[in-house]
Write a structure and sequence with these properties.
By secondary structure, the protein is α/β, with parallel strands linked by helices. It folds into five domains: 30-112, Carboxypeptidase-like, regulatory domain (Immunoglobulin-like, Sandwich); 115-202, Sandwich (Immunoglobulin-like); 210-296, Immunoglobulin-like (Sandwich); 350-586, TIM Barrel; 599-683, no CATH class. It contains 13 helices and 39 strands. The strands form twelve sheets. Strands 26, 27, 28, 32, 35 and 38 form a six-stranded parallel β-sheet that branches. Strands 17, 18, 21, 22 and 23 form a five-stranded antiparallel β-sheet that branches. Strands 3-2-5-6 form a four-stranded antiparallel β-sheet, with no helix packed on it. Helix 5 crosses helix 6. The longest helix has 19 residues, at 427-445. The protein is globular.
Length: 691
């Protein structure tokens, strides 16, 4: 009997150990570990693209993998264990440290090798002709994208400072593209610590395709189009919409080109010198790998426009459903996003704002004054970032700032109380720093700034909440720390980060080096195209002479010239330069303006309705959902249609109306044709509105 009881007790304990192992694990005590990562020259590494991986005891599976959020960083780990900490920067293994936690906090210092500078020189197959405006992507050996940029007219990229490769298995990959077309990929690129190096890349395509390029046109039945059917030609345009060459069809129906520079081209089919709508424009890469192209006519079936019938007097039996706010149901299958109706940004400012950071006392004040004067004398708006606790005693720079405020030549931004990342402070500390910096700027300059430039561009959710609570309206960080989308209207708090700079930071030298106006201008254009605006950041350092390992208070005339060239490039493209705090006020709707100019009617159709029309045609939403959605939009004045007669009854929706909606979603018929179908539904009483 006793043995039986012991057996049952043991079995019960085993059961408990299986069912409740987690509760016992929680009893293990933890301890704090501080991890500080520096370069071998003593500089702390930046947190951007750095992470560490921690292994416990002799385990081969990591206990923690974490992006570096601050430096030093603080974490809590279970006590009474040994830990191995591996550091990765730019996806590359950098170094390793070991520590043992025994009932008290520990600090682990890890020194990693210096970064190296990599500039890429990209050439055609002859090895001498540079490739301009190629897209260059640098990846670490784990396949993660680290840098992306464009080549200039010399085939050069800017110099990218990346973590050096100290292990045999560590390397970088460079991919070269023309638009979306991959030209070449180069692996096993090594970077030496602390050194600047150039890497020549020869792309296996000719600079000029000398072979005959042949185009052939086909109708919807795949029958070749001949010259007897019309005066056809093809127009080639480059990525800047510059006309490169137009060639006419021969009597055999072929269209020939020769000696075409390698590149990506937009192909337009013309008839009698005018764009033929029976062919959609297409993009092709002429790089010597394909010399014959076939273009097929788009099957643009004309919809049957049935006559408007007399209203049906008998009402429908089923009650009309209540309108829904958004007529979008969860689709059974993945619906198509109709390209004609969705643009990430249909607003644009087509503008640039210059942001001048790090304004402070007794530091490069000749350079600070010079930059401000350049903008002031040319009546160019400039946003100036003041470090509040380091400003107010140097009359040389303070008087310049006060005078320009008086003349309405500059806009003031709060650049923090001290130049330390806000991510190192909790929410209460951030709130106190914002209040102190705001008050001090007001005391000195009599300006209540509502624009915040985070020190070192770093911020977190606490920062956003604190700024909103203190009635700030704008924050300008960097796309490194702030991710899109950047909303452009109807916001109480705007995020407009820098997309371009006039100088680049070199970690191994711990300095900012000026970059070319071409590179800055290219980055700014990319920002405008992608986000609708561009913020260009400047620092005094890149405009100062650098001697003996330090900046001196002497103007770098070469870099000042680059700044003046940059301003001229922006003006020559009719891009407006405005204050950062006014970006949202300059937004305008490109798409809506174009449609209204081309429309003979005064009705308005919301852009997203095209998605619903296409999804209705494709069966992702049903008839009643679509009809009720359109009915609601018309009633609420969101969608406007021309005056029409309201029918009193309801009937089934004709197939041609549904086809019209689908064709409109595909941009195969006009807005007028789509509205014709909607009017028909109103006439038949299928859509009920108050007229």
């Amino acid at each position: 009997m006793l043995n039986s009881k012991i057996f049952k007790l043991c079995a019960f304990l085993i059961f408990l150990s299986i069912v409740f192992p987690v509760s016992w694990a929680y009893s293990e005590e933890s301890e704090k570990l501080q991890i500080e990562i520096k370069y071998t020259n003593g500089d702390r590494i930046d947190t951007y693209q750095a992470k560490y991986v921690i292994y416990q005891d002799h385990d081969t599976t990591p206990i923690l993998e974490k992006n570096l959020e601050a430096n030093p960083d603080h974490i809590t780990l279970p006590n009474d264990h040994k830990y191995k900490v591996e550091v990765f920067v730019n996806g590359i293994f950098s170094d390793v440290g070991f520590v043992e936690l025994r009932n008290e906090p520990e600090k682990l210092n890890i020194d990693i090798p210096l970064s190296g500078g990599l500039k890429l020189n990209v050439f055609f197959a002859d090895g001498e002709t540079p490739i301009n405006n190629a897209v260059v992507v640098i990846k670490s050996n784990d396949g993660e994208e680290q840098r992306i940029g464009n080549t200039n007219d010399l085939g050069d990229t800017m110099r990218y400072w990346l973590q050096s490769t100290i292990l045999e298995e560590s390397y970088y990959i460079v991919e070269v593209y023309y638009g979306d077309f991959l030209l070449t990929s180069v692996s096993d690129i090594k970077i030496n610590q602390g050194l600047a190096q150039d890497q020549k890349i020869i792309v296996p395509i000719p600079s000029v395709v000398e072979e005959l390029i042949t185009f052939r046109l086909y109708d919807t039945e795949s029958q070749k189009i001949l010259k007897s059917e019309g005066n056809f030609s093809i127009l080639l345009e480059d990525q800047n919409a510059t006309h490169i060459k137009e060639s006419r069809m021969t009597f055999k129906g072929d269209i020939y080109f020769s000696n075409i520079p390698s590149g990506v081209y937009s192909v337009t089919v013309m008839i009698d010198g005018i764009k033929d709508p029976q062919w959609d424009d297409s993009k092709i890469a002429i790089i010597g790998n394909q010399n014959e192209f076939e273009l097929f006519q788009v099957d643009k079936i004309e919809p049957i426009l049935e006559p408007i019938l007399e209203p049906i007097l008998e009402p429908i039996l089923e009650p009309i459903l209540e309108p829904i706010l958004e007529p979008i149901l969860e689709p059974i299958l993945e619906p198509i996003i109709y390209e004609s109706s969705v643009k990430e940004y249909n607003l644009t400012c087509n503008c640039v704002s210059f942001r001048f950071d790090d304004i402070q006392d007794y530091w490069l004040n000749n350079i600070q004054s010079k930059i401000i004067s350049i903008f002031s004398k040319n009546n160019i708006p400039l946003t100036v970032g003041i470090i509040a606790d380091e400003f107010g005693n140097d009359s040389k720079i303070v008087d310049v700032v006060k005078n320009e405020i008086k003349n309405n030549k500059i806009e003031i931004a709060n650049h923090g109380l001290v130049h330390v990342p806000f991510t190192q402070f909790d929410k209460q500390e951030q709130n106190e720093m914002i209040k102190k910096s705001t008050n001090k700027i007001y005391e000195i300059l009599n300006v209540n700034s509502t624009i915040f430039i985070p020190p070192e561009n770093q911020f977190n959710e606490d920062t956003i909440q604190v700024l909103i609570e203190n009635e700030f309206t704008h924050i300008s960080s960097s796309t490194i720390y702030d991710s899109p989308p950047f909303l452009l209207e109807n916001e109480y708090f705007y995020r407009f980060p820098e997309v371009a700079t006039t100088g680049g930071y070199i970690p191994s030298q711990n300095r900012i080096l000026g970059i070319s106006s071409d590179q800055t201008f290219s980055d700014a254009l990319g920002g405008i195209n992608k986000y609708g605006f561009a913020v260009i950041t400047m620092h005094p350092q890149e405009f100062a002479v650098y001697e003996g390992g330090e900046y001196i208070n002497e103007i770098n005339l070469e870099q000042i010239k680059e700044l003046e060239n940059l301003i001229e490039k922006i003006k020559s493209e009719n891009i407006e330069i405005i204050y950062l705090g006014q970006i949202e006020r300059n937004m305008f709707r490109v798409t809506i303006f174009e449609e209204m100019e081309n429309s003979s009617e005064s009705y308005v159709i919301p852009k997203w309705v095209k998605n619903n029309a296409g999804w209705w045609r494709d069966g992702h939403i049903d008839n009643s959902t679509f009809v009720n959605g359109i009915q609601y939009l018309i009633k609420e004045g969101i969608m406007q249609i021309p005056p029409t007669t309201q029918g009193s009854g309801g009937s089934e929706i004709p197939t041609w109306v549904k086809n019209n909606a689908g064709w409109w979603a595909d941009s195969r018929i006009s807005d007028d044709d789509f509205i014709y179908g909607i009017n028909y539904l109103v006439n038949q009483g299928i859509i009920i509105i108050d007229i």
